[in-house]
Design goal:
four-stranded mixed sheet, two-stranded antiparallel ribbon, about 350 residues, single chain, 16 helices, signal-anchor, alpha/beta, about 10% strand
């Protein structure tokens, strides 16, 4: 291994955040990499205190000062570097907003007991990760993530997010807690969102809010029933809606198809770990190991038979024109670059 890699892996680096006040509202400005080392109070996932015994280490210390350097640690350093390099190379587009406000932090779930922050991205195993976070923060209320109903995992009051803290508390947590997120091939995630929200009859709220709007704008000679129900949106219409400049001016994308860099702000917040859907189990259990709960808790391993695959995604894009494919790629380009996903072979970019 190269000495430079070793040196980077041994660094203790976390975010440093500086605050500015503007017109009565706080504005957060994120800076990178400040050293940290201090004793912490730890808890196990069943709520029993583990005192600050000699040798106890925080997840950040385990990550950046590993007792034994591993290929996994090196892999995650490479992923961090990829994000940093992409942000630097695309500074104009990736940092259109130079500051963040607390409302930008509503996707960052906080685990006080294990000093971790998880930015959840819909359609990237976020239901199971929310279940795991409920076990970690439940102080004995839960022990098995899969015993928690999926709808309960999405009840906002069951988990605390970073935007609920005061500005000094936000500062402290961004500086001292291990921050992680999970990503997925952008177009596979997009097709997964479409299939879940527009092809399932039970998702009437999405049909009413988004489906009717998409049909009205993108379908010529739409029937009155289609305009009223919005429950038969075609993928081609969904894509046309996403690339429509009017859509992007009107309001932010829904979280299920919003870009990861807009949900989690990786060019403003330094994430210590970037997990991938393609290596979900390994990456998730590595995080639980760093948190010191790997012996108690494993990430759920069951595979959904209905999950969206690369083959499915290829089929969905067959009827998308090369012009629309090119425009859609531009929308999600930073996610492709930042998380090292290659341009799909089925795309016909202009």
């Amino acid at each position: 291994m190269k000495p430079a890699v070793l040196e980077v892996m041994r660094m203790n680096r976390v975010c440093r955040m500086v605050l500015v006040t503007s017109v009565g509202s706080f504005i957060l400005v994120i800076f990178y990499f400040q050293s940290m080392l201090h004793p912490v109070m730890r808890r196990n996932p069943f709520g029993m205190d583990i005192c600050c015994r000699k040798g106890s280490r925080s997840p950040l210390q385990e990550l950046y000062n590993p007792t034994q350097l591993s290929n996994t640690a090196i892999l995650h350093q490479i992923r961090r570097d990829q994000v940093t390099d992409t942000c630097r190379a695309n500074s104009v587009s990736s940092r259109k907003r130079r500051v963040l406000t607390p409302s930008d932090l509503k996707h960052l779930v906080v685990d006080e007991d294990h000093e971790m922050i998880y930015c959840y991205v819909p359609k990237v195993a976020c239901t199971n990760w929310k279940r795991v976070m409920m076990v970690l923060t439940g102080r004995g209320k839960y022990s098995d993530p899969m015993e928690i109903p999926a709808n309960e995992a999405h009840v906002s009051s069951n988990l605390k997010t970073l935007n609920q803290y005061s500005i000094p508390e936000i500062n402290h947590r961004l500086k001292n807690y291990m921050k992680f997120l999970f990503v997925r091939e952008p177009f596979e995630r997009l097709v997964s969102a479409y299939r879940n929200k527009f092809t399932q009859k039970y998702n009437t709220s999405f049909h009413k809010r988004y489906g009717t709007k998409i049909v009205r704008r993108q379908r010529k000679n739409a029937t009155q029933e289609a305009l009223r129900k919005g429950d038969d949106v075609k993928f081609e219409e969904f894509v046309a809606y996403l690339i429509d400049p009017h859509t992007q001016r009107e309001e932010p994308f829904n979280e299920h198809w919003q870009t990861v860099y807009s949900l989690c702000h990786p060019c403003h917040i330094h994430y210590d770990l970037i997990g991938k859907y393609e290596t979900l189990e390994e990456d998730s259990n590595y995080i639980l190991q760093l948190a010191g709960v790997g012996n108690y808790l494993k990430f759920p391993t069951y595979a959904k038979s209905t999950r969206t695959t690369d083959e499915m995604t290829t089929e969905f894009f067959q009827n998308i024109s090369s012009e629309h494919q090119t425009q859609l790629y531009e929308v999600y380009k930073l996610d492709f670059l930042m998380f090292n996903y290659s341009v799909p072979s089925y795309l016909k970019l202009e």
